[in-house]
Write a structure and sequence with these properties.
Layout: H1 3-12, H2 17-25, E1 29-32, H3 66-78, E2 85-89, H4 110-119, E3 122-126, H5 146-170, E4 174-178, E5 183-184, H6 191-206, E6 215-220, E7 231-232, H7 236-246, E8 249-253, H8 263-271, E9 277-281, E10 283-285, E11 287-291, H9 297-308, E12 315-319, H10 328-347, H11 351-359, H12 363-373, H13 378-388, H14 394-408
Parallel strand pairs: 1-2, 1-12, 2-3, 4-6, 6-8, 8-9, 9-12
Antiparallel strand pairs: 5-7, 10-11
The structure holds L-rhamnitol (RNT) and zinc ion.
The site of zinc ion has 4 residues, from loops.
């Protein structure tokens, strides 16, 4: 089918496919650096990431150096239509110095900023509160020991400064997302004190005022992690309250809720109390397994909610998955494109018609239009979108992914 035919088919439903393409072009997706190297980072140490998160698999091609990771990213971005962002973690510093977490500085990330400038890519940032001797007990900002808390508070403050400098250098606010693994394997006796300590540490970290044109603070909740099954100190209720009181962004990770909870449903609920959010788009399978996102119902519903509730302007879309059993660059490319495809489908829905039906309690029309729309030629519009961006699809795309994977397969 030609794009013109598809365009006419959508127009028949009152949907403007040109407007959808134009809108999609402007939506940046923050691609996470950690899919490229299984959440290892470039500190002078090796080993598991800890903190209850785990990349599994040993597919060849893991990026071992910042240069390899940037090469992999350049390749991935070349196959993703549009202009996107990179989400860096503090442990991905690029320097010969070996600063501890409480010693990191903007200079340690300068090569990333230079690269981002060259590629016209915005940067987001994360302090790293795991994979460190002082986080071995899965307690950081809520640790009973003031000295350990202070160490992590300093790391968090420095991360905020680095994020602000990145935002200033690139002319685009850098979202600095705070996630700590803190929790207990077995039922704690004093959750209250742990949460009060976390709150106190966050207050200290967030006390220095930063310019919102340069950086935005976000906080990420979690239900449980491996090793902290009984209690996560920074639970959803904890951070929702905190974000509302302090005016930070709230980060909703799709893997951080009970599997039957629907993140798409949460967006409008929190949107009434918060200005902006960060999404960690992920795919939990039975637990927070961080599988690569598919173009499945969860992602489609999320995209639809962002469009129909008019939340795109208040939402920073970040990805958070890591699979080491498949080509890491293919995971990035296919996962990020899936997010874009979901947004495109949402932008091509006859939202006004569906809303009018719902308001008139005509649930039959809402049902039948939604189902009939599943046969619309979304793929043809996507092909047009990628063709305009000079990005391949289908067998050509897979050929490119295979070619690059075979080039990096002799690493390690
Ligand atoms: C962990 C959180 C967190 C991490 C990254 C690496 O459960 O989802 O966002 O995945 O910070
Ligand atoms: Zn996350």
């Amino acid at each position: 089918m030609s794009y013109e035919t598809a365009k006419a088919a959508f127009a028949d439903w009152g949907v403007d496919s040109e407007a959808a393409l134009e809108k999609l072009r402007t939506i940046p997706i923050s691609m996470h650096c950690w899919q490229g190297d299984d959440v290892v980072g470039f500190e002078q140490k090796t080993g598991a990431s800890g903190g209850g998160i785990q990349a599994t698999g040993n597919h060849p091609g893991r990026a071992r150096t910042p240069d390899e990771l940037r090469a992999d990213l350049d390749f991935a971005y070349s196959l993703i239509p549009g202009q996107h962002r990179l989400n860096l973690h503090a442990m991905y510093l690029d320097t010969d110095a070996a600063p501890d977490r409480d010693e990191i500085e903007f200079a340690h990330f300068a090569p990333w900023v230079d690269w981002a400038k060259d590629q016209d890519i915005g940067l987001d940032f994360n302090p790293t509160f795991f994979a460190h001797a002082k986080a071995d007990d899965n307690l950081t900002l809520s640790h009973p020991d003031q000295g350990i808390r202070d160490f992590w508070i300093e790391h968090g403050k420095r991360s905020r400064d680095i994020a602000a400098q990145m935002g200033a250098a690139l002319g685009s606010p850098c979202v600095n997302n705070i996630w700590v693994p803190d929790g207990y394997k077995d039922t704690p006796i004093d959750r209250m004190s742990a949460r009060a300590r976390l709150e106190g540490s966050l207050d200290a970290m967030l006390a220095p005022v930063q310019d919102k044109a340069q950086m935005l603070d976000a906080v990420e909740s979690k239900l449980f992690g491996i090793g902290v099954e009984a209690c996560t100190v920074g639970s959803h209720e904890f951070y929702m309250g905190y974000a509302i009181r302090k005016g930070t962004l709230l980060c909703l990770d799709m893997g951080h809720f009970h599997p039957t909870e629907n993140i798409a449903d949460k967006l409008s609920a929190v949107a009434l109390s918060l200005d902006e959010f960060l999404l960690h788009v992920s795919r939990p399978m039975r637990w927070d397994s961080d599988h690569v996102i598919l173009l499945n119902d969860d992602i489609l519903q999320m995209a639809q909610e962002l469009v129909s509730a008019d939340l795109l302007g208040r939402t920073h879309i970040g990805l958070d998955f890591f699979d080491a059993t498949i080509s890491r660059t293919a995971a990035w490319v296919i996962g990020t494109r899936n997010m874009q495809k979901a947004l495109l489908r949402a932008l091509l829905m006859p939202v006004d018609q569906l809303r009018a039906a719902e308001n008139a309690l005509d649930f039959t029309t809402r049902f039948s239009v939604t189902e009939e729309f599943k046969d619309m030629p979304f793929g043809t519009v996507w092909a047009e979108f990628s063709a305009r961006a000079d990005v391949p699809n289908g067998r050509r795309l897979i050929g490119e992914l295979d070619r690059y994977q075979s080039e990096v397969s002799d690493r390690d």
